[in-house]
Amino acid sequence: MRYLPLSDQDRSDMLAVIGAPSVDALFEAVPSDVHLDQPVDLPFHQGELQVERALGRLAAKNVAAGSVPFFCGAGAYRHHVPASVDHLIQRSEFLTSYTPYQPEIAQGTLQAVYEFQTQVAALTGMEVANASMYDGSTAAAEAVLMAARITRRSKAILSPGLHPHYAETIYTLAHNAGVKTDPLPLAVDNEAAVLSHLDADTACVVVQTPNLFGTATDVSKIAEAVHAAGALLIVVTTETVSFGLLKSPGAMGADIVAAEGQSIGNGLNYGGPYVGLFATRDKYVRQMPGRVCGETTDVAGERGFVLTLSTREQHIRRDKATSNICTNSGLCALAFTIHMSLLGEVGLRRLALLNHQQARRLKDAMSAVPGVEVLTKRFFNEIAVRLPIAAAPLVDALAAKGVIAGVPVSRLAPKAGMDDVLLLAATETTTDDDIAALAAALKEALA
Amino acid sequence: MSAQTGPIRPAGRADAIHLETDKPVTLTGARGLLQDEKLIFELGGWDKTGVDLPEPELDASDLGDLVRAEPIGLPGLSEPEAMRHYVRLSQKNHAIDLALYPLGSCTMKHNPRLNERLARLAGFADIHPLQPISTVQGALELMDELSYWLTTLTGMPAVALSPKAGAHGELCGLLAIRAAHEARGDARRRVLVPTSAHGTNPATAAQVGYLVEEIAQTPEGHVDLADLARKLGPDVAAVMVTNPNTCGLFETEVVEIARLTHEAGAYFYCDGANFNAIVGRVRPGDLGVDAMHINLHKTFSTPHGGGGPGAGPVVLSEALAPFAPLPWVVHRDGALDLREHEERSGEDGRPQAFGRMCAFHGQMGMFVRAYAYMLSHGADGLRQVSGDAVLNANYLKSRLQDVMSPAFQGYCMHEALFDDRWLADTGVSTLDFAKAMIDEGFHPMTMYFPLVVHGAMLIEPTETEPKGELDRFVVAVRALAEAAKAGDVERFKGAPFHAPLRRLDETAAARKPKLRWTA
Fold first, then answer.
1. Chain A contacts in chain B segment 100-129 (CB below 8 A)
2. Domain B116-373 architecture
3. What's residue A327's pLDDT?
4. ipTM greater than cut 0.95
């Protein structure tokens, strides 16, 4: 077996040192009636070539986004990632290292995390960010629990444009922790509806912008009302590239930002692993979940970085911790940092504008298709359209013709009464030809 | 072969370290191949980019005042600069590809590169979680196959794949347990957890709204059955036990623990962080387990990546399976489908599935790697994995037990636990000893965990270490142990001397946190 270095001679030499008759004898603590005496009933080991064939066969059954005109968004976005990013994250020292518990021999990881935290704070317009969460949805759920701890209140209002998977994830975590959720019915552009739900028990309002339907909202007014009610504003963003063009959540008064960072540095990967961005104000840092890296010095006075504020965390505080999170998305966060370092402010702004440009062209093309109504007015790179027929069967039919025509709302919320609404995203990878192909396919299907 | 190979250089020579520190300080801060590397924010490329993008033809005038007015504050690097910057940083990290990484309970084993290649196939890496089901049949087949392997290896009937890490899996398991109790109208308040447990266990139980109560441990390092029996009662929802436990011991009475737990109407949660010690030999389903998370990044070797991503699928018993979170893969009309919404309801009319752990379907990139690892090893290889992991740990224990003090007698499982009695009166602490190991080229073992042992040192070599590397480690640790006992205290107190940085001031970092770069 190519991954197991011990030879039979090694094993018998080692058993002699131990004084054990066999490897099986080392398992003497296992009751004999539950210690299997044979391998389990599964295939035996295979060579690299055979495994590559088996998985290659499975991969070939999927339609890769890059092989067709492709318009899916709704929380995961197809962007171009520079080759150097993937090369760097596969360096052994990054790929095969553990959480940096021994900072003297983990400065590579720690300095990169410090850069990540600084980038995330800058993008979101916040004062402090952690070392990453699992993804945007779990970051949002943790943000709600954090707001409940800070305000000592127990209700979270979820805006009408919040991604249904995010709302379900928040509900699952929150209601078991004693926090009620108040989800508002899905709507393309009705963020202000949260205001009439504010009350003395409200810990936080969760608003997504750009929202599920692509609508970008200035939440400044909502922030004022939320703060006046003694609650916190959590801003959720699933498309991180939008930070390159739109006003930052921090500038609009957010108290906590929970975002999906997949768009920068990370592929679609059928939904994971992704990287959750989590940022907040300095005054709340001790209620923040997750690992955080800070600057310090060594005994010789040289600057260095360490994991810090660990008295919030499970390995120190156990049942009093701010969260149970341990593992985060280290390598995905590294990919984010490297890609963002390559882009820089100049590159990110241009990338964001290109995304917006292609979405505008997509919108214009959709407006020209008879029977299609564009619902989203102010958007970044994603729009919702109303079709004269149900969206899901149409998307399936177009897939058979080689066009992946976005995400039907019914896929995410079958009971929302939006069976005829389709979500379409465009990024810098979307060509004008792709848009023309979608428009032509829709025209033909709706004719 | 000799079990008493001597130290590399004479131990206890007081002048040895001074010879090292007499080296002149360099004028630039670099040390040979090791570069002194600034933060990207200090490298100054505020108007630079390493990505060539076309000039946009449209502007954002349609967005009006939604457009960001203020600068962001992000420096850029050209590609050559980015390569240098991050390669220089990488060289300041220890890695499993460099040397033994004996972090007990963390399982740092070799990461096969085939798995990296396969996870990057466009058919896996470039598919969207919400594209039509007909276009992702291969992905669903892989998830289905992975589920089959996980349920077969654990002897459990069902698995929830979506949890994103071990602690997220614990959360999933406890949420299923809570849902199962509530479906019977049986609200329970307490969860029992041994004192040796990972911190995530009590933190998870608290996050699900339970009160946590500790179960005592016997002097032999096992769950104290009498204490467990005493604390079990009609308000106990679950007992969470790590098996093999964090002392590196198999819970010999695990079947009885499960029986007592079930007798009290509670569920038995097993923390599967150490499943790598028994994979292919023991099926948790045969032990009476109701739920167990499996850290794919430990047992099935998906890379740790400096702190993640992980993946924490949870296997579930018949009793808990109906409450598994969305989504899951189903067979329908000869094809595979994803069940993403709950269509069933229990007797009280509420949905059966307890909810959703995260957006989309889990860590697909990790599923591909873990499945490739499983196919590569096969049933025979996986049995060898646990055998060699346990053999390597016992070999280290045997070769170190005369100079260090094992916390428990007898064979260990995949990791060997030592306490700090052997350092008594040396003036050297567990922390000092760990830092001196860094100078000798090894990552330290897990320190001060589990909490039940004073000054704990938990050593886990894993099955992917060759005997030669274990011997090299033994030589280094023995030499250090002799140096400590010979009064060579400075070697430890000042350590590390040879790492990229000397010992870091963690207290100062926490007292006045500086968590981002500012001009």
1. 101, 103, 106, 108, 110-112, 114, 116-129
2. 3-Layer(aba) Sandwich (3.40)
3. 86
4. yes
